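Narrative summary of target 7.
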Amino acid sequence: MENKKMRPGLLITFAGALLAYLIGSGTASGQESVQYFSSWGSVGGTITVAAVNFVVMFCCFMAYTYAGRHGTTDLASVCEFYCGKVVGKIFTAFAWIFNACCFFFMISGFGNTLFQQWGLPLWIGYAIAIVLAVGTAVLGLQGIVNIIGKIGPVVVTFLFILGVISAFTYFPGISNGIELIRSGEVSVLQAGANPVLAGLSFGGCSILLVAAYMSSIGKELSGYKKKYTTVICIIGAAAISVTVGILGLCHLGNIAESSQAAIPNLLIANQVFGSASGILGAVFAVIILLSIYSTFCPMLWTCVSTFIKDEKSVKYKLACVLAGIGVFIVDMFIPYATLVNIIMTYCGYTGGIVFLVLTVRWLMVRNQDKKKMVSE
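Modeled conformation, tokenized:
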């Protein structure tokens, strides 16, 4: 029953869509790297955040896909599967609120990228982002996956290459960056009370984004060997943890400038590429825009489809439009870095709670199922 072999292309598409979900404006812009990883002024702190983040992501991805193999199709059913109706509804609310809040800073990140690279007024950038988000969300989930599944691997690969290349330039300055932070000469927005809680918060944010998608993967791949699902989960958790961690160390070595930039990754890209920055910097800006686009589209779908199931209805499309207008108005008054810091930190803690409960319940349910299979 569960012995179908998966084509490499299909595996890459699923993993790519997962990465596209996970890499939004915070990751691609570098704000997450700076606030979650660089801000501790410590190499050990950066590694701790990355390790905790990997554990949180992997365990929850596995829990979601396991629930999907049991027939769950959306966020609410996953939470109810593991936690019952009452607690399940609370966890569903956590995830919905986070998706809704993240949509605000994703749109802001898109506009700020256009402003920092090309000087386009913020309100125009926000408007372009809203039009793209609404226009794609009305296509429904399958249309979204078909589009963003091709973007994810490209973005992660580019960010990883940027991190590796930048390391030669900025790693030698890490000790100086540590001293600047510890002396108080450079002030950095910090996400979390310590590196462990930062990792829990960062991972908690990520798992709240992909619950519905990962459960759908679990259901769709129920006829395949479980190892393929595990591989997808490992790729998603490892790619994000390693890539953002390396970039965090690069920003630590350039902390005086990175802490002041709205889009830190774009800053170091332009510095590292040197004379070629006119072309490569622009290419990287486009990569950032694609990564943000690949995340805010499914976010809008998640928020609206929770209440309006019929993706082809006028009501669904109208809700997408009204949501876009509301976000545009709010983003005009709140800075991007502030949105990232507040939303990611506190919503991430709720995600940490979800991680602890779901992981324990996943292990319990899986163990019960194994005993049941043996007895039968």
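The two ends are 17 Å apart (CA to CA).
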